[in-house]
Inverse folding.
C-alpha cells in the first residue's frame, strides 16, 4: 500500500507542491478515503456517533448484570475516559508531520513502527474489527427485522432468521456503491439520530415498566468459574461498545486542512459532541436497564421489553436503520484497503465495474458468515476483546509513546502506561469469556435454521 500521505496542493488548500503522477492523482481521487476533502465538523460528529453507538449499547445492561454494580459502573466510566483520551491522541497524530496527512490507521502505524511492521501490526487488527462489526451487524440487522415482523404481525407464519439477514443485506448491495464517506453523510446522520432514539426508548420504557418484582442483583451463575467467565465476557461487550477508533483517521481525512486551520480543530469538536451523545446513550441504558431487571435482563435489552408493542417494534426498526449506517461506516475503510491493493499492487484500472464486483462480493461474504454464526452475545465478547481493545484502548498510546517519547514518569508517560495495562488486560480476558459463551450457545444451535 502506498503510504505517502503527501499533501495534495490542489485539494487541501495549503499551496504545497503536488509531486504525484497523473495516475497516482487519479487513483487518490477514486479511492473512497482520499476522494473527498470537504467535510464539515458536524459530519465528524455524526460519523463518530454512528461508528461508536452500535448495537453494543443494547447489550450493556446484560454486561452490567455479569459485572455487578461496582465493577460495572467503574468499567463503563473508565472506558469512556480512556477511549476519549486515545481518540484525542489519534486526532492529534493525524497531521503531526508537517505537510503530511495520515489518512488511514495503518499509515500512522507505519510511521510509528516502520513500513513493514506497521502494516503487520495494524492491518490485521483493523480488518478483524471492521469485518467483525460488519458480520455482527448483519446478524443484528436481521434479528431486529425479525423481531419487528414478529411484533407487528404476531399471527403471521414464522419466517427464518436467515431470510431476514438476507433482506437486511439486500440494502447493502445498493448502498455499498456510494463512493466515499461524504456521500453517506445522510445515511450516517439518520443512523446517529436513530441510535439516540432507540437508546432513549430502551431506558425510558424500562423506567415505565418499573423495577421488576423479586429483582435480584447478585451474579446469575451458580459456580465461581461460571461467574468469572461471564465477567470476562461482559468486559468484551463493553470494549465492543467503545469501538469508533478504527475509522477515526479515515473520517478525519475527509475534513479540509491548511497550516492555519488544521483538520484537528473541527474533528475534535465533532468528537466531543459525539462523546456527549455516547454518554447520553450508554449510561442511562446500562444503569436503568440493570436497575429495573437485575440479573434477569436479556442480552439485548429490547428483548426484555415486550410491551408496549408499538414502541418496541419502532425501537427495533430504529436499530435496523442505525445498523445500516454503521455497517457502511465500517465497510468503507475495508473497501478502501481492497481497492488500494487491487489498483496499486495488482494494476487493475480504477473503474466502476471493479468497485461493483469487489463490494458485492464483500457484502455477500459478510451476509453468509452472519447466517452461519448468529450467536450475538458471545460474538460481541469474543471480537470485543480480541481486536477492539488493542485498536481502541492501547495501540494509540503505544504509538504516542513511540513517536513523542514523553519523559519517563511524566504525566503523559504514566497516563499512557495505565491505559496500556488496562487495555492489555481487557484484550487477554474478554475473548476467553466470549469463546465460552459461543461454545455454550453452539450446543443448542442448528446451522441455517
Amino acid at each position: 500500500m502506498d503510504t505517502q500521505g503527501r499533501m495534495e496542493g490542489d485539494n487541501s488548500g495549503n499551496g504545497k507542491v503536488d509531486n504525484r503522477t497523473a495516475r497516482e492523482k487519479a487513483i487518490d481521487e477514486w479511492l473512497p478515503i482520499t476522494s473527498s476533502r470537504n467535510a464539515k465538523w458536524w459530519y465528524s460528529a455524526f460519523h463518530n456517533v454512528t461508528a461508536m453507538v452500535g448495537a453494543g449499547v443494547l447489550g450493556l445492561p446484560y454486561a452490567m448484570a455479569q459485572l455487578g454494580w461496582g465493577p460495572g459502573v467503574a468499567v463503563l466510566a473508565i472506558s469512556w475516559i480512556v477511549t476519549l483520551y486515545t481518540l484525542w491522541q489519534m486526532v492529534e497524530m493525524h497531521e503531526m508531520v508537517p505537510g503530511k496527512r495520515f489518512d488511514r490507521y495503518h499509515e500512522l502505524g507505519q510511521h510509528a513502527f516502520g513500513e513493514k511492521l506497521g502494516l503487520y501490526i495494524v492491518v490485521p487488527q483493523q480488518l478483524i474489527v471492521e469485518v467483525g462489526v460488519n458480520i455482527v451487524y448483519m446478524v443484528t440487522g436481521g434479528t431486529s427485522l425479525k423481531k419487528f415482523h414478529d411484533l407487528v404481525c404476531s399471527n403471521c407464519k414464522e419466517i427464518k432468521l436467515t431470510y431476514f439477514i438476507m433482506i437486511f443485506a439486500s440494502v447493502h448491495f445498493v448502498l455499498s456503491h456510494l463512493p466515499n464517506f461524504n456521500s453517506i453523510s445522510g445515511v450516517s446522520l439518520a443512523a446517529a439520530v436513530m441510535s439516540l432514539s432507540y437508546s432513549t426508548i430502551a431506558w425510558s420504557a424500562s423506567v415505565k415498566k418499573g423495577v421488576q418484582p423479586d429483582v435480584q442483583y447478585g451474579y446469575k451463575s451458580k459456580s465461581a468459574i461460571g461467574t468469572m467467565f461471564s465477567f470476562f465476557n461482559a468486559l468484551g461487550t463493553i470494549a465492543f461498545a467503545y469501538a469508533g477508533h478504527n475509522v477515526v483517521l479515515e473520517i478525519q481525512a475527509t475534513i479540509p486542512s491548511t497550516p492555519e486551520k488544521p483538520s484537528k480543530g473541527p474533528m475534535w469538536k465533532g468528537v466531543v459532541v459525539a462523546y456527549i451523545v455516547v454518554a447520553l446513550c450508554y449510561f442511562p441504558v446500562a444503569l436503568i436497564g440493570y436497575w429495573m431487571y437485575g440479573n434477569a435482563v436479556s442480552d439485548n435489552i429490547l428483548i426484555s421489553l415486550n410491551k408496549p408493542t408499538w414502541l418496541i417494534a419502532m425501537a427495533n426498526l430504529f436499530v435496523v436503520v442505525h445498523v445500516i449506517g454503521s455497517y457502511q461506516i465500517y465497510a468503507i475503510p475495508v473497501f478502501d484497503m481492497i481497492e488500494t491493493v487491487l489498483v496499486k499492487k495488482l494494476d487493475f484500472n480504477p473503474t466502476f465495474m471493479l468497485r461493483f464486483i469487489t463490494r458485492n462480493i464483500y457484502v455477500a461474504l459478510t451476509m453468509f458468515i452472519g447466517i452461519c454464526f448468529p450467536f450475538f452475545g458471545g460474538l460481541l465478547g469474543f471480537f470485543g476483546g480480541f481486536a477492539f481493545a488493542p485498536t481502541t484502548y492501547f495501540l494509540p498510546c503505544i504509538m504516542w509513546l513511540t513517536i513523542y517519547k514523553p519523559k519517563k514518569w511524566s504525566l503523559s508517560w504514566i497516563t499512557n502506561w495505565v491505559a496500556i495495562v488496562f487495555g492489555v488486560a481487557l484484550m487477554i480476558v474478554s475473548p476467553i469469556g466470549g469463546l465460552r459463551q459461543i461454545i455454550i450457545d453452539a450446543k443448542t444451535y442448528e446451522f441455517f435454521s
Q: What stands out?
A: DSSP finds 16 helices and no strands in the chain.
